[in-house]
């Protein structure tokens, strides 16, 4: 049984290294969007390159995050976590030194592999190290400090882009890793799951990632209307079908399809797809809109986005407690509608927009909607499956959210009518951005309708998430095997 106490020196070191590791990945998911216009300008890149700068990372992260957790369970959580930290830092260094857009996109894909190794390991190390009496508090501190990292990410990204340059958005990860990895090796105990048999669904992971990659490529390059795009789209669908067949036949699949026999689990993941597709498209395009159309600096644009993450950091735990009392159906129905209203308010944002009168009200409404829905969504995911599958259910839900954001970043500019050079023209980008906000709002309304029609009350003995404080805008929080605790 793990016996590290949170007040002990070793407990503090464990908290520090897991916070540093998770903050690397969380910061990266929030700061890069702010840097995109400068990246495009410096590397003479079109909109497709900016989409790939975001999507190459999300592609490998979403496709491999379940496999990363399994590797940690078998080979040692600390070992895989440290490998992930070092890998992430090396890929970040390559991103920061990238001489061309092609090298940057490839390095971002490598970065996502590192993220898939370290992200599930961060929480798993806490759960495997701390005494049961201290575990809840340790997870709370970890998620709280991680939330602070997410909240300062846009501000930090803007400051770096305006100051030393966009390359430091990536180079910043290197000193964090140089601090994190030695602390982990010296102070974090190794742990593994003795029940792990060492058989990994590598083929399933490869087919899932390949399907996402091909579909993403087809969506981003669809403006060309070439035969290659059509063939790629068909190949992506074929790879997706092959992924499902492999998961059906594999005795130890990465994503057991029978977990979707739970109607509630399936429904909540559909809501997740709608919600995080809208979020992914919104934050990708808004960071560009504030700089391209409104004309703000990266620092001003990044700082302006703070309200959404700050609201989640301050109120996500209270929202979860409220959902425990009233059930998840109302929050999961009302939350997406509030988010849709926030995106409709963004129609006021364009050239000459005022932060106080135009941008801030939209972000406050959006942030309120995010607060309302994220904690109940996680609770419902965990309550809809057997206790033994809580970690798997959380991982699938997290991967679904990241895949939804990936597809949204690829598809939304196309559907909104953005050309390859759209981000170089304030008027053209502004018009397309407003169309995109209408699309995002519509997707959120669909998510709300799905929640209202399908989500039901949780059983009285269901378990709450351990990650009560959450501020990530890219995915719901991961929960480990021991996720949750019974509600009295």
Automatic annotation (TrEMBL):
The lineage of its organism: Bacteria, Bacillati, Actinomycetota, Actinomycetes, Kitasatosporales. Its main location: membrane. It is found in: Cell membrane. This is MFS transporter. It comes from Streptomyces spinosisporus. Keywords: Antibiotic resistance, Cell membrane, Membrane, Transmembrane, Transmembrane helix, Transport. Residues 14-459 form the Major facilitator superfamily (MFS) profile domain. SUPFAM superfamilies: MFS general substrate transporter. NCBIfam families: efflux_EmrB. It is a multi-pass membrane protein. The chain crosses the membrane at residues 12-36, 48-68, 80-99, 105-126, 138-160, 166-188, 200-220, 226-246, 267-290, 296-317, 329-347, 359-383, 395-416, 436-455. It comes from the Bacteria.
């Amino acid at each position: 049984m793990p016996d590290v106490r949170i007040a002990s020196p070793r407990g503090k070191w464990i908290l520090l290294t897991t916070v540093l590791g998770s903050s690397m990945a969380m910061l990266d998911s929030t700061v890069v969007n702010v840097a995109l216009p400068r990246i495009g300008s410096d590397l003479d890149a079109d909109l497709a390159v900016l989409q790939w700068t975001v999507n190459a990372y999300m592609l490998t992260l979403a496709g491999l995050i379940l496999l990363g957790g399994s590797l940690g369970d078998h080979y040692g959580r600390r070992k895989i976590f440290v490998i992930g930290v070092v890998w992430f830092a090396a890929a970040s260094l390559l991103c920061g030194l990238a001489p061309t857009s092609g090298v940057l996109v490839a390095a971002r894909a490598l970065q996502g592999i590192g993220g898939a190794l370290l992200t599930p390991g961060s929480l798993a190390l806490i759960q495997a190290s701390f005494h049961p009496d201290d575990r809840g508090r340790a997870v709370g501190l970890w998620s709280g400090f991680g939330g602070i990292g997410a909240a300062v990410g846009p501000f930090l990204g803007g400051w770096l882009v305006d100051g030393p340059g966009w390359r430091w958005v990536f180079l910043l990860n290197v000193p964090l890793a140089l601090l994190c990895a030695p602390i982990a090796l010296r102070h974090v105990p190794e742990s593994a799951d003795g029940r792990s048999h060492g058989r990994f669904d590598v083929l399933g992971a490869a087919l899932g990632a390949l399907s996402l990659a091909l579909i993403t490529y087809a969506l981003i390059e669809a403006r060309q209307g070439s035969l290659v795009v059509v063939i790629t789209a068909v190949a992506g669908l074929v790879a997706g079908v092959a992924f499902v067949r492999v998961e059906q036949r594999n005795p130890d699949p990465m994503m057991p399809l029978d977990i979707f026999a739970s109607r509630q689990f399936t429904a909540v993941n559909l809501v997740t797809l709608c919600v995080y597709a809208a979020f992914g498209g919104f934050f990708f395009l808004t960071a560009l809109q504030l700089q391209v159309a409104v004309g703000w600096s990266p620092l001003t644009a990044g700082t302006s986005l703070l309200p959404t993450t700050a609201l989640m950091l301050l109120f996500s735990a209270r929202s979860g407690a409220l959902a425990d009392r009233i059930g998840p159906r109302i929050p999961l129905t009302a939350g997406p509608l509030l988010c849709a209203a926030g995106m409709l308010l963004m129609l006021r944002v364009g050239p000459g927009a005022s932060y106080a009168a135009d941008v801030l009200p939209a972000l406050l409404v959006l942030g309120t909607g995010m607060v309302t829905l994220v904690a109940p969504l996680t609770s419902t995911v965990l309550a809809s499956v057997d206790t033994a599958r809580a970690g798997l259910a959380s991982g699938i839900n997290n991967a679904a959210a990241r895949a939804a954001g990936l597809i949204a970043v690829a598809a939304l500019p196309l559907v909104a009518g953005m050309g390859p050079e759209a981000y170089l023209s304030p008027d053209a980008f502004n018009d397309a951005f407003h169309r995109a906000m209408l699309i995002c709002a519509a997707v959120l309304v669909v998510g709300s309708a799905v929640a209202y029609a399908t989500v039901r009350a949780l059983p009285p003995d269901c378990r709450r998430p351990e990650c009560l404080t959450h501020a990530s805008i890219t995915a719901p929080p991961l929960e480990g095997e021991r996720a949750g605790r019974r509600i009295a």
